[in-house]
Structures are given as structure tokens and as C-alpha cells.
Amino acid sequence: xxxxxxxxGGLVQAGGxxxxxxxxxxxxxxxxxxxxxxxxxxREFLAGINWAGSRTAYGDSVKGRFTISRxxxxxxxxxxxxxxxxxxxxxxxxxxxxxxxxxxSTTEYHSWGQGTQVTVxx
Length: 122
Fold this sequence. Notes:
Layout: E1 2-7, E2 10-13, E3 18-26, E4 31-37, E5 44-49, E6 56-58, E7 66-71, E8 76-81, E9 90-97, E10 111-112, E11 116-121
Parallel strand pairs: 2-11
Antiparallel strand pairs: 1-3, 3-8, 4-5, 4-9, 5-6, 7-8, 9-10, 9-11
């Protein structure tokens, strides 16, 4: 079982930046990702990174603005969010899965962080 503890998030003005962190503990994991969920909407894929940290992928809504990275020495996953927009407001989740390649679907991840609110004001 992998435990994921998130930090970061909060309130920011449009155009601003935030960084989310996700500290992992427990058994070995490979792929990691970030998702978000707004009220009344499905959980949306934002970014994923493979086991080696050599490949990343992004959802269309955040491509060019968000950057996923991992520091395996610290067992920590990051999401750097720049040029934030009011439509980025949601609860953000980190996730871990047992595959090797970047994973895009929630069904490919078996562990989830507790979620953190990000609110972008206009």
C-alpha cells in the first residue's frame, strides 16, 4: 500500500503560480500522475510521469502551463502550475500506479492523495 500526502495549493490570482507536492511512502511504485476534479465534473487527467522520470504527458487543458516532476531521492512528486486561470479551480489529487509507462486513466492508478483545493480568482 502506498500512502500519498499532498501539500501546497490554496488561493491565487489569475496569472499566478502554485506548486503542489506529493510525498510518497510505502511499497515501490512506478508511474505517478496528477488529476483534478471540479464540483459536478469527472476527475480530469492533468499530467503523468513514468517510472524513470524520463517521459511525461499532459492534458490539453494544462499543456504548456503545468509541469510534472519527481524527485525519487525524496519520494516526492511535484506539479508546478503557472499562468493559472479561474477555470483551473478544483480539488487536485496526486496518484500512484504499478505500471511502467505514463498512465492517463484513473483506473490505472491504485493509490491517491487526500486532495488539495486550488482556487484561482479572476
